[in-house]
Amino acid sequence: MGMGTEKQTLVRQHLIDPETCIRCNTCESRCPTNAISHQRNYVVDPKKCNFCMRCVRPCPTGAVEHFFQLAQLYPVDEQMRWIELPPALQVASSEPAATVVLLQPGAQPSSSGDDIAPASAATPRINVFSPDSPARAVVSDNYRITGGAAENDVHHIILEFGDVPLPFLEGQSVGIIPPGIDGEGKPHKLRQYSVACARDGEKPGARNMALAVKRVMLRDEQGRKTRGVASNWLCDLKPGDAVDVTGPFGSTFLFPENPEADLLMICTGTGVAPFRGFTHQRRRTNPNASGKLILVFGARAPEELPYHIALQKYAQSELHRELVYSRVLSSEREYVQDRLRQRSREVAWFLRRPTAHIFLCGSQGLEEGVDDALAEIASGRGLDWLALKHEMHQTGRYHVEVY
Question: Which of 33, 227, 330, 366 could serve as 362's disulfide partner, Cβ 3.0–4.6 Å?
Fold first, then answer.
């Protein structure tokens, strides 16, 4: 081989832009390999990162979405000292080749990294308000929407924005930074909450927004119960209290406006929040739509199901509900994936429809259990679930939001 023709071996590296990162900790909390850590900066350990992409979509600013083909990897200690990406990388990041997703041997593509918005969804606005310049809202109402024990306390909180409305779409989230400082003397980190109403407000035409917030109780190293900072502060707010709001965030987990779109919405706990918004928007804009709305909603018991009473106001023809409980003494434990298997004939009918959209929202283990159930149902009806799911991804009809 002549001089100048030898090819240089490149390695792929995932990097986080410290200039646009808002230190919300979302990426670190989503990383399954503990590759992301932070001191001054949030950084990615190239020895641990498997490019699963689970940190990409939840990032509210896009700071984590930087992938490069490099001759030499940047070590973690060097990334910690950056105040911005190196100049050479800033130039490269505008080149298509720098952001092509090429998986390393053994890595598996994730459903969380390549979401496409539904074709009929409205165009979202993102990052209208930042932590340095938030939207000021005032609480107009705050009430509990679950029964049972204190640890199952979920609140419906309505925020009024007055003359400075925050534009959002169903399925988007907003960021809230609780007041005060943490144990290290630093401001508390931003927390994200899904919007729980239609884009025109809790009531049609109102300049407000609804959130569903669960009061989080944690345990310290000695096993003692402690109160989650943001959730408890929000759940304890009174009418008239002020809240600074950032965002909105999210550009793909959005309501399809096509009235013929069929929606299978699968959730647990406060994962119902975006689906409440979906249902409100369909009812307000296309009450006679031909597309079906199907909600498979899981909780431990009826009293722990957010919006349990409000859901009963919908006719099954308007919103078909499958309410699933895992801790009811009079019956066996059942989870959402079990109910999908019980309704396999209806689910298979749904999977065959080109108008079908699937949305999952809830706790981390939800995706795997539902995926297994859908694969089993599809196989039993002669369908290739992997191929079908890929096609639904590519056409903006399959979306997952787990936390």
Answer: 366
Residue with tokens 């390393």: 104
Residue of 229, 234, 159, 244 whose CA lies nearest to 189: 229
Over the stretch 235-263, which tens digit does the pLDDT of each residue have? 999 999 999 999 999 889 999 999 999 99
Listed in sequence order, the residues at least 6 apart from 203 whose beta carbon sits closer than 8 Å to its beta carbon are none
Provide CB contacts within 8 A for 340, sequence distance 6+. 266, 296, 347, 370, 373, 374, 377
- 3-class state of residue 366 by DSSP: helix
Pair 116, 60: CB distance under 8 Å: no
Quickly state the pLDDT bin for 107 (edges 50, 70, 90).
very low
Q: Which amino acid is at 362?
A: G
- Phi, psi for residue 371 in degrees, rounded to 5: -60, -45
Nearest of 263, 161, 164, 141 to residue 212 by alpha carbon: 141
Beta bridge partners of 176: 191, 245
CB of 265 closer than 8 Å to CB of 237: no
Strands annotated E in 220-363: 225-227, 242-249, 262-268, 293-299, 320-325, 356-362
Paired tokens of 270: 């406060």
Which among 283, 352, 361 has a CA at the least distance from the CA of 317?
283
Q: Is the dihedral of CA 233, 235, 239, 242 positive or negative?
A: positive
Contacts of 11 (CB under 8 A, 6+ apart): 46, 69, 70, 71, 72, 73
Is 190 or 276 the better-scoring residue by pLDDT? 276
Give the three-state DSSP class for 378: helix
CB 198 within 8 A of CB 281: yes
Question: Mind listing the pLDDT tens digit for each residue in 195-223?
Answer: 999 999 998 888 899 999 999 876 666 66
* E-state strands within 171-270: 173-176, 191-194, 208-214, 217-219, 225-227, 242-249, 262-268
pLDDT value at position 255? 97
How many angstroms separate the Cα of 154 from the Cα of each of 149, 195, 239, 270? 11, 14, 17, 8
Structure-token pair, residue 186: 């630093």
Looking up tokens 């909105």 gives 248
Name the more confident of 299 and 61: 299
Q: How many residues does the chain have?
A: 403
Euclidean distance between CA atoms 266 and 306, whole angstroms: 14
